[in-house]
Amino acid sequence: MIFDHSGAEVARHQLEHRQILPQAGWVEHDPVEIWERTQDVISAVLSSGPLRVSDLAALGITNQRETAVVWNRRTGRPYANAIVWQDTRTAPIAAGLERDGRGDVIRERAGLPPATYFSAAKVQWLLDNVEGLRADAEAGNAIFGTTDSWLLWNLTGGVDGGKHLTDVTNASRTMLMDLETLDWDDELLSFFGIPRQMLPTIKPSASQDGFGQTTSDSPLGAELSVTGVLGDQQAAMVGQVCLAEGEAKNTYGTGNFLLLNTGETLVRSANGLLTTVCYQFAGSGPVYALEGSIAVTGSAVQWLRDQLKIIREVEEIEALASQVDDTGGAYFVPAFSGLFAPYWRADARGAIVGLSRFHTGAHLARATLEAICYQTRDVVEAMEKDSQVSLSVLKVDGGVTANSLCMQLQADVLGVDVSKPVVPETTALGAAYAAGLAIGFWNDVAELRQNWQEDHRWSPQWTAAEREAGYAGWQRAVQRTLDWVPAT
Q1: Which of 293, 360, 421, 439 is most buried by its number of CB atoms within 10 A?
Q2: What is the pLDDT of residue 488?
Q3: End-to-end distance of the chain based on CA atoms, in angstroms?
Q4: Distance of CA 112 to the CA centre of its chain
């Protein structure tokens, strides 16, 4: 996506890549395919209008955060498919950390529970299971990064001097970075047996000279400074201009991610949320956030399309769900990867409850949309307990916000207004903002606030009694998903 100074979209191109599911609980991506798709979309967006690389001020990168890529710095080839954040194969590793008390150290240093979600255990699994990888890692030839690092390394030269870097937001999702020092922690590395030389150098999220330049061999075909890198949910915070303490947003994508800006205060959650770096701009200290991460929301709609085949395109779910006025008492808890915030139950699995012969595909479609909204309420309840701040309006972004029925249900379930900006793809916009702030394309965050405009607002229509009855049913449904996978 290309944006101008007003924050308006100038051009875009996008392509899907494969979701590789080798066996139950495993979710992988092909890093080479992602790099190829990246090259294709850059080339296509530049050729879609009268644009040249010289028209661009800078480049920003945003990415799904915890997905782990390990590749050879000499050949440029990945050792295996990337292990995606939704993958649960590392459950035994996470359980072991919890049993022997190392989980408490991880919570204190990294702000994260020992869970399958995060990168470190994925790297340990690869080191333990890919032949020759550990020897190459100890020799300094095998390197690790989240997807931002993989793309950045390729954009800046690859085997010919590519930069092995990441930013504080992505590093804060690995279980390996100390939130206070903003550096890799040797004790945490020892928990997973990861050689320090595998890791990228950590930089602020926006930095004028921090991430290097693209090369003439890159899809841009010329040099362009990479000045912003942000994990996707932190990028959405910047894109929504949630840059003041107490401001929050919810991004609806493959999963849902609700973040609350806590300013320079590192707030440790007592209610199942994550403490994470929100962003760090050059010359300033880190800004922190509380985050509620939900594993399966938009991907539940994809499941209806790809596995159950009750819709042909994800956009069809709104019309199908609108055929009924309610779910008829049915609930769908899409705990395909266990339950993330605020439960953190790796033993949970998906369940559809309350069914009778009366129910149709339309009821299941509506229950899927309600599941997105109820999971968000779970996180909002935990966030209000941790922060002692009551939500007055929820800023939303991401692909699911195109579904007006889902957004109306979200307002109904929460009992607060839901507000969508004119530019719903705030993740890409936030990466652009970070890159532009670093070079003075935007002078300060006040300019960014002037760009933000509301596109639509949904207000609650349910009564308080309807809202509480619905949520009570949801909580009963969640209980049915627990203890499904035997303890490891």
Answers
A1: 293
A2: 60
A3: 44
A4: 15
| pLDDT (average), residues 90-115 | 93
d(C-alpha 388, C-alpha 107), whole Å: 21
Side-chain-facing half-sphere of 149: CA atoms under 13 Å: 30
Rg, the chain, Cα only: 22
Does residue 224 carry a pLDDT above 90?
yes
* pLDDT of 311: 95
Identify residue 411 by its one-letter amino acid code: A
Whether the CB-CB separation of 215 and 53 falls below 8 Å is answered with no
Handedness of CA 157, 162, 163, 166 (dihedral sign): positive
Q: Which helix (H) or strand (E) holds 269?
A: none
Encode burial over 249-269: b for 16+ CB neighbours within 10 A, e otherwise: bbbbbbbbbbbbbbeeeebeb
User: Which residue's entry shows tokens 């804060």?
Assistant: 172
Tokens of 282: 């050059």
Hey, what are 260's tokens? Answer: 């609350």
Specify the amino acid at residue 426. T
Place of tokens 């931002």: 148
Q: E strands, 64-139, where?
A: 69-72, 82-83
* Distance, CA of 483 to CA of 271 (rounded, Å): 20
- Residues 63 and 44 sit within 8 Å (Cβ to Cβ): no
Residue keyed to tokens 């909204």: 373
- pLDDT, tens only, 283-315: 899 999 999 989 899 999 999 999 999 999 999
pLDDT in tens, 356-409: 999 999 999 999 999 999 999 999 999 889 888 788 889 998 889 999 999 999
For residue 220, is pLDDT > 90? no
**What are 193-213's pLDDT values in tens digits?**
999 999 999 999 998 877 999
Q: Is the peptide bond between 50 and the residue preceding it cis, with omega within 30 degrees of 0?
A: no
Which tokens in the block code for residue 313? 């395109």
Portion of the chain with pLDDT greater than 90, in percent: 83
Average of per-residue pLDDT values in the chain: 94
Asked if 393 and 240 touch (Cβ cutoff 8 Å), the reply is no
Q: Collapsing DSSP states into helix, strand and coil, what is residue 390?
A: coil
